[in-house]
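Retro notes (design track)

What went well: tokenization of the new backbones is finally stable.
What didn't: we kept losing track of which sequence belonged to which structure.
Fix going forward: every design gets posted as structure first, then sequence, in one message. First example under the new rule, 214 residues:
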């Protein structure tokens, strides 16, 4: 904790707080701290228990994802309200868990929009890698009906799912683009130079163009 406190940078905190993240540690330096610790699952639990955002990010990097039960991961996600902690927990821990599909289904239908956003993020991952038994037209129906008025984090996750359907499933691409054009979600999102817009129609066509060229 002292080591993380010494890495605190007020300028980084100011930038992060604009995105809802209450920490001021450079992530490259934070990852270096985690790398020096290597995997320490018990220490990870202690760091998570502090509630400190930087400590929780380190905890995520040094834990054993497969050691958690589904109920433990569910409790951790509901406690992870900070966007960066929430995102890392889903990407670095839940996706590596044997309980990922069980949690995806449970969270997808959760009444809490932040929890539901995790279910949508996991669904988006399956859309891209292994759509299997997913009902993609039904997902598009849900996106068309609810994305426009969804809270920010849930809306972002639904939009990512829409883009992934359009990118990875050519038979549904026209419909995905059409939904994006009608809803105009994130159409005016400020996008830095050399970055792809999160507006689904642009996102879809740009990634498909790159895939075609490669």
């Amino acid at each position: 904790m002292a080591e993380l406190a010494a890495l605190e940078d007020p300028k980084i905190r100011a930038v992060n707080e604009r995105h809802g993240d209450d920490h001021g540690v450079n992530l490259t330096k934070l990852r270096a701290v985690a790398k020096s610790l290597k995997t320490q699952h018990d220490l990870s639990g202690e760091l998570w228990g502090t509630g400190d955002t930087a400590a929780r990010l380190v905890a995520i990097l040094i834990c054993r994802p497969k050691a958690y039960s589904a109920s433990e991961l569910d409790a951790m996600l509901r406690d992870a309200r900070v966007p960066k902690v929430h995102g890392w927990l889903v990407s670095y821990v839940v996706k590596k868990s044997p309980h990922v599909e069980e949690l995806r289904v449970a969270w997808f239908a959760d009444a809490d929009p932040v929890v539901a956003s995790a279910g949508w993020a996991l669904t988006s991952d399956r859309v891209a890698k292994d759509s299997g038994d997913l009902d993609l037209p039904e997902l598009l129906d849900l996106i068309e009906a609810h994305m426009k008025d969804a809270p920010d984090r849930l809306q972002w996750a639904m939009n990512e799912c829409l883009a992934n359907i359009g990118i990875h499933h050519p038979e549904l691409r026209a419909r995905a683009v059409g939904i994006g054009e009608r809803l105009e979600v994130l159409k005016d999102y400020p996008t830095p130079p050399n970055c792809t817009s999160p507006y689904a129609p642009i996102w879809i066509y740009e990634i498909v163009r790159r895939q075609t060229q490669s």
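Added context from the reviewer: The mean pLDDT is 96.
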